Fold this protein.
Amino acid sequence: MSLSIEQLEAFVYTKECGGFGPAARKLGKHRTTVSHLVNDLELDLELSLFTRSAKSVLSELNYFEQKAQGLLEAQPDKLSIAVDVSLMDEQFALGLKALNQQYQSLDIDVLSGDTISIHHWVEQGEVDIGFSLGTFEYSTQLVYSRAYQFELCCAIKAEPYQQKVEVSELELRQLRQIGFNFFNQLGLASSQTISHRLIRASNSQQIIELVKAGLGWAILPRYLCEPLFAQQQLSELWVNGMNKEHWHCDVVWKKERPQNLAMQAFTQHFCKLEDK
């Protein structure tokens, strides 16, 4: 479907001026010309925008006016976002809500996957922008904008009446560790591997379920674990001599694809969030 600027202008001015006659005078066109332009637009959309007998606007009109006005102002009308499953939380949903409030006629497509998939989809142009855990390995084809960072902690299956389980690093090595696939795929496994035995999974939610089942321990975002510690679904693994560590997430987009207004708004929102 291809809509012309003339059709959109005719529609917007007809709505704002309250009829085809006033719109025609505003546009310097004949009334019949404006009427035909709006009629053609309705045929293209397969949608009745006006009730001619009463000259009133149907319920669909306000939505379409926003859409048409956005096109006239060169605002983006679509945005495809790839989000790391590990970051699909309430904060992400609130970010989309803020974006929707800023661009109310914007159609948003959300695709979720593991960390490596997010970067691949952005690189291949399958999505406009991505939001993922930081990988510490950067592609020359992508632009990375650092978002919030968060503290990490060690977690293990809940021990009755124990929110913390203290072990030495030597004892920790004997326990099976559950980690992220992408560290291994990027050749970075040694930087995050402590134990001799490993299980790998795609995202934080999968890892948490494996830890809850008693298959091993894991390094996870503290903000995900704190509620589970309080509910006694997990226990914190306190390792003697181990320093606090932090991780971050990135907003990523293709270098050769300049950011449109919606992409800029998405990036600014998530890169201004406070650390967790």
Summary: The two ends are 45 Å apart (CA to CA). Confidence is low (pLDDT under 50) at residues 53-59.
